Amino acid sequence: MQTESSAHFVLVGAGDEAELVRDVIARHNLHNMTLLPSVPQNDFKNMLTEFDIGLFSLHHDHTTHNFPGKLLGYMVQEKPILGSVNPDNDLKDVLEKAEAGLITINGDDESLLTNALKLLHDSALRKTLAVNAKQLLAEVFSVQAAANSILAAMKRID
What we know:
Blueprint: E1 9-12, H1 18-27, E2 33-36, H2 41-48, E3 54-57, H3 70-76, E4 81-85, H4 90-97, E5 101-105, H5 109-121, H6 123-141, H7 143-157
Parallel strand pairs: 1-2, 3-4, 4-5
């Protein structure tokens, strides 16, 4: 994506791989990528209002179904989601079924690039995915959705 002058990646956090990411940015002279340290949650929420796309990547070797907390922030801010997940992660199906994002299996770099370029160049697609992400939040991940699910389960028990 270095040739895409309108693309700039902002990575926020100090996770286990932060130093590796910092080294790759320097070694490859990635001028369209910024790595910022961790910020308070409120600052992160404010930053999200300025971003066009919510990006996440899960390690290929994970064996569990991970749901990164940042996805909820992306949905709250009505952002389309670009992501890569570990194989057999249900999150891919959930996001794709809801048409809330473009998701690849980690390691499939060609598909990730294709998806990134689609989102970069198709503002209508970004808007559709963003609206669907917000709807997915309300229908599946909201407090109300959780309460409804619990109440429905309790009725089945009675």
